[in-house]
Specification:
Strand order of the largest sheet: 6-7-8-3-9-10
Bound molecules: adenosine-5'-triphosphate, magnesium ion
Strand content: 25-35%
Distance between the termini: 46 Å
Shape: globular
Radius of gyration: 18 Å
Length: 221
């Protein structure tokens, strides 16, 4: 997959318009950041990119295929949205192994490698019901990367992570980008966005605007 294109996308729920005329073109090997106030539509955009919500109007293309028409979901995708729901009575490893059964692409060694990269391998055999918020988040990130997807969609991936965790996950995402992945990220943390993203989209008043990565310094010296 080289490109993901939103072409004049509108999204409404009942009669409430959430997003209007969204036109964006996303490429592989890039990290895209979506920012905006609570309720502005960041999660809705990410869910549409993932094929989990359909546009009310307009189209989303993956290269030459239309999402929701030619394909239901991006075929090679890892997604972390809101609080990842894991089976509390299964260990972290068991949860991920269970999820690999959907596609049958990978086995235990790949799952463990992903857990290692996400810094959660030490807790692999602990039940996720006993995980802290940051541990669940790390397991969610392991789940995103474990099948080595071309497209990664991460909603607030640094939630609940400590400083060390944030630095580790930043490094991990930059490594994924170098491997040519396309990464979509929603975040409230300005540093994540400026440090990680090649392009930033700001959502406000139903519109998605591309903004310069580094804001110009306006204060006088
Ligand atoms: N399934 C749904 N049905 C009805 N309205 C919805 C649905 N999903 C989202 N919305 C509405 O769409 C708007 C955008 O929601 P969204 O979750 O995308 O915001 P967000 O930018 O991710 O906010 P936050 O920063 O709090 O995560 C909100 O007004 C929300 O109430
Ligand atoms: Mg959200």
């Amino acid at each position: 997959m080289d490109k993901l294109i939103f072409s004049h996308v509108y999204k409404s729920f009942r009669n409430r318009i959430i997003l209007e005329d969204v036109c964006i073109e996303l490429k592989r090997g890039m990290i895209y950041g979506f920012i905006g106030p609570n309720g502005s539509g960041k999660t809705v955009i990410l869910k549409m990119a993932a094929g989990l919500l359909r546009p009310t109007k307009g189209n989303i293309y993956l290269d030459s295929r239309t999402l929701g028409k030619d394909i239901d979901f991006p075929p090679s995708m890892g997604i972390l949205i809101e609080n990842p729901g894991f089976l509390a009575h299964y260990s972290g490893l068991q949860n991920l192994l269970y999820l690999t059964k959907i596609k049958g692409l990978i086995g235990r060694s790949e799952v463990e490698a992903a857990m290692e990269k996400a810094g959660i391998l030490d807790a692999a055999s602990q039940k996720t019901g006993q995980y802290s918020l940051g541990m669940k988040q790390r397991l969610g990130i392991a789940q995103v990367i474990m099948e080595d997807p071309e497209l990664m969609i991460l909603d607030e991936p640094m939630n609940g992570l400590d400083q060390k965790g944030i630095a580790e996950i930043r490094a991990l995402l930059l490594e994924q980008k170098r491997q040519g992945k396309m990464i979509l990220l929603a975040s409230h943390t300005r540093e994540d966005i400026t440090y990680l993203c090649d392009q930033i989209y700001f959502i406000q008043d139903r519109k998605v605007q591309s903004i310069p990565k580094v804001s110009p310094i306006t204060a006088p010296h």
